[in-house]
Amino acid sequence: MLTISSADINIWIASLLWPLARIMALIAASPLLGNSAVPASVKVSLGVGIAAIVAPAVPAWPATDPLSMAGLLIVAQEMLIGLAMGFSIRIIFAAVEMAGEISSLTMGLGFATFFDPTTQGRSSAISQFLSLVATMAFLSVNAHLVLLSALVESFSTLPVSSIPVYGGGFKQLADWGGRIFSTGVQLSLPIVAALLITNVALGILTRAAPQLNLFGIGFPITLGVGLLVIAMTLPYLGTPIQNLFLDGIERARLMPRTWSQRPPVAKPATSPVRPPGLQP
């Protein structure tokens, strides 16, 4: 006769709930799968399917009731791990969007803004264009599949546990966020340099011929030069964007290893042993 106890039910719930929390958090934070255009039913179905595949391969489950306070804390910790892994990839897209923002402001397209439903904020036209280019590159190199592979690998690197994770991973995530500014400036540097030369040439031209209307001829020229430079540099953006994706996925893969480490325990200072007969 088949008998099912409450302990067995708790194990079944925990084996699906805890991996699902990490997986759904990564799907919600990832730049492609977490897009608002993807239906919620597709996200939930994908998360449940991956959790059902991953659950039998997880090393061990903590002996904790999933509906208790300790079990809910484990759910919150798993969600935090998944959000951090997805955020490490979203930083790459934020860097590309920042490059578009800098280029738009330099070209004079600061007024051509749109509402971005992904970030729930304002986004420029060039930023949206470069974001679409980065999305196509993300799909062309199968980075979404590699990200899911890193997610499955994280259950072996950082298993589900009731032990709190090491807080040093948050500092590394903050340091990785600095790539938004450095990479954004580097990607937009050719456009900014070309438009700087253009503005200097327009300044010399208006100085030599004061009767020219700078506001009448300056905007079409800077806009045309900016679009021309974007068209010329677009074929060369594939390699740096691909390297950025590789760095982001590697960061997402190494982050669970960082959180699984523990800080070294400082040993208490001991006074030196003095031989008998010697006074301090």
Automatic annotation (TrEMBL):
The chain crosses the membrane at residues 12-32, 44-63, 69-93, 129-152, 187-205, 212-237. NCBIfam families: fliR. Role in flagellar biosynthesis. The gene is fliR. GO terms for biological process: bacterial-type flagellum assembly; protein targeting. Its main location: membrane. It is found in: Cell membrane; Bacterial flagellum basal body. Keywords: Bacterial flagellum, Cell membrane, Cell projection, Cilium, Flagellum, Membrane, Transmembrane, Transmembrane helix. This is Flagellar biosynthetic protein FliR. Residues 260-280 are annotated as: Disordered. Signal peptide: none annotated. One of its GO terms (cellular component) is bacterial-type flagellum basal body. It comes from Duganella radicis. Belongs to the FliR/MopE/SpaR family.
